[in-house]
Every structure is written in C-alpha cells, then in structure tokens.
Design a protein that fits this description.
Two copies of one chain form a homodimer. The first copy, chain A, is an all-alpha fold. Chain A has helices at residues 20-42, 45-52, 56-63, 66-77, 84-88, 95-108, 110-125, 127-147, 154-174, 185-201. Chain A has two domains: 16-65, Orthogonal Bundle (Arc Repressor Mutant, subunit A), CATH 1.10.10; 76-201, Tetracycline Repressor, domain 2 (Orthogonal Bundle). The relative contact order of chain A is 0.11. Chain A binds chain B through residues 39, 120-121, 123-125, 130, 133-134, 137-138, 142, 153, 155-157, 159-160, 162-168, 170-172, 174-180, 183, 187-188, 191-192, 194-195, 198-199, and chain B through 39, 120-121, 123-125, 130, 133-134, 137-138, 142, 153, 155-157, 159-160, 162-168, 170-172, 174-180, 183, 187-188, 191-192, 194-195, 198-199. Chains A, B: Residues 1-24 are annotated as: Disordered.
C-alpha cells in the first residue's frame, strides 16, 4: 500500500528468449547463416551471438568453441544425411539408384543445397573447417553407411561413392559446367546408379 | 671532348626485365602465387605487378583484365590437362585406367596439385573465378576429350568422369578423409578405372 520496493524472489528474471531450446535453435540458425554468408574465417562467436540476439556467453554455454558451434551447425545442414541409413535398410538390390536419387534430390533443392555448399566452401578455405567436416562426415555418415555394406573395405567404398556424388555437385551446382548443369536428373541417376551399386555391393 | 650532353638516340632505353617473354612469364608466375596465397578476391593487378617487379600497365598490356590474368594463370596450372588428348589417342581399350592413373598422378604430386587446389578454392568462393574455370575447363579440356569419344552425349560423359576424379581429389587431398586419404593409389585406380571406362566408351 505504501511505496515499498517490490520484493525480489529468488534469482533475477531471465528474458524468455534467453532460455531453453529456442535459444539453442536461434543460435544454430544464426551460426549457419553467418558461416554461409561470411565464411569460416570471418565468423565469430560474437557475430553469431549478435545475429541470434543473445549474449556471447550463452553461445559458449550451449556449444563451446567456434569449431564446436561449426560442428553443430553443419550437423543440421547434413540432416538429409540422416536418411541414408534408412535408404540402406532396403537391402543391396537397387541401393545404387536409391542413393543416387536421394543425393541428387538434396542438391536439387536450393533450401537443402545452400548450407551444404557453405560447408564445402568453408572446408576448402579453412583447415579447421576441413577437420570438423572430416570428423563429422566420417563418424556420422560414412562409417554408419559402411556398417551396412557387405564388401571388403566398406568405408573406402563408401568414400568412393560419396566422392563421385560430391564431384557431380561441384561441377553441376558450383562450376555450373554444361551440359551437366542443365541435364535432366534422371540422366545423371541412370549413368551413376550402376557405379554406386558396384562400389557398395560388389566384392 | 668537351662537356657535351650525350645525344639521345630514338626511344628511351627499356629495362631488359620489362620486355619479352620473360616478363610475361614472371607475371604469370606472380599471378599464380598471388591467387593461390591471397585468394581471388584479394588479388589485384597492382599486387601481381608488384610481385612480378613490373609496372601494372605491363600486366594490362600482356593480359588484360584481372579475369584474363586469372584465365592465363590457370591455363598454366592445367598444363597437365594438355596430356589428356594424348592419353585418348591410344584408343578406347584401357582408356579408363590410363585416365584414372594420370589424374591421380597429377594430384599425388604436390607441385602439380597446389595450383589446381588454388584454382578450385577460387572457383568455390568467387563467381567470377567459377565462370573463368567453367569456360576454360569446358573449352580447353572437356570438349576436346569429347571429340575423341564414340558415345552419345560425349561432353556429358566426360563431365561425369571428371566429376568423379574431382570428388576423389576433394575427399583425399582437401578433406583428407580416411581411409581414402592414405589408400594406395593402385587401389583407387583399380576401383575407378571400370567406371571411367564405362562412361567414356560404352553406349
């Protein structure tokens, strides 16, 4: 009733935007955008925090170092890669075509393509980014694929398959070399599927 | 006999270093180094001239714009590619293995690898560089290869072959993904040669 100061209860109120998964997601989204637009070198924790509208300390709290933020950010970019084990689960028949079709589909879609391109650019221009990509891609994707393959040297085989698809992505979407850049995706799949099939299933 | 000023004869003397092919070569060497070390964006005609020890006007005189200097510089980097028509001249039998072996050889050698990596990095990070690479690679290499192929859509087939080898280069030498990075080159050639053979010779 009189002009008493309000009593403090417990810890100071936090802004709702600074807590919980939505802050983590905002940081990840901001990180992906920053890395994509500025490149690995010019991206900083401070820049990511500013883009996310949070304190830099929160970025450190949730993710750690710049490399750890990068690893988390590319993990999201590689979400489409999480589908790959499901594609393998269909068994060896036709796996070459299923994988070729899926990979091309991811790259044909500008929404899923852009973060992958950004990751590849970073890896090509900064050794720390290449190291993160190597560890991530190997551990999360290629070795997982290799588990399901019944061939000698399965990780080597998976890498040969991945290298072919990566190279197609580079010539088609980055260099934009014709006629590959404008080719119907079915033409590419038709040519490449038997290659992947051999690498992934033939001893 | 007396203190007469020496008579001028004709045009002022030029420094020997500013004339003839050796100046052109110095400019090309400097351009390759500048592009490789600074990247496409941060390289300038002035910077190239300084590194070559010549006047910027001489760079313009011999080569033209920055893009034209870049095109000339990467042409030299792709000198190994000039061997490819000779490899094709051996006829279709075993062409897959010859090309796989040659490509791997160029990338295994750090001297020939470094400028190629620099070109790819430039193309990935600067659209103008991608455009130069696209024009150059297509016109000078892939279409030349396609002339010697007896398959439908020969340029498309040549690009598929090139994409596979580029992807291997990326995973082995840039990302350094194991076991591909440490694999014996004969293992890679053995797996990949039949792929290139099919792309380049089978209708």
């Amino acid at each position: 009733m009189n002009g008493m100061a309000p009593r403090r209860r417990g810890r100071p109120a936090r802004k709702a935007a600074d807590t919980g998964p939505s802050a983590q997601q905002k940081i990840l989204d901001a990180a992906r955008t920053e890395f994509a637009e500025r490149g690995y070198d010019k991206t900083s924790i401070r820049g990511i925090a500013k883009a996310a509208g949070v304190d830099p300390a929160l970025v450190h709290h949730y993710f750690g170092t710049k490399d750890e933020v990068f690893a988390a950010a590319i993990e999201v970019s590689f979400e489409p890669a999480l589908m790959v084990p499901a594609l393998l689960a269909g068994g060896p028949d036709g796996i070459g075509e299923r994988l070729a079709r899926y990979f091309i589909g991811v790259w044909e879609n500008p929404v899923t393509r852009a973060p992958l391109l950004a990751v590849i650019r970073s890896a090509l221009t900064h050794e720390a980014a290449a190291k993160v990509l190597r560890t991530f891609v190997l551990r999360r994707l290629l070795e997982r694929v290799a588990e399901d393959l019944d061939v000698p040297n399965p990780t080597f085989r998976a890498e040969l398959a991945a290298s072919h698809m990566l190279g197609i992505a580079f010539l088609r979407y980055v260099i934009k070399a014709e006629p590959l850049a404008s080719a119907d995706t079915e033409e590419i799949i038709t040519m490449v599927a038997p290659t992947l099939q051999r690498y992934l299933t033939e001893a």
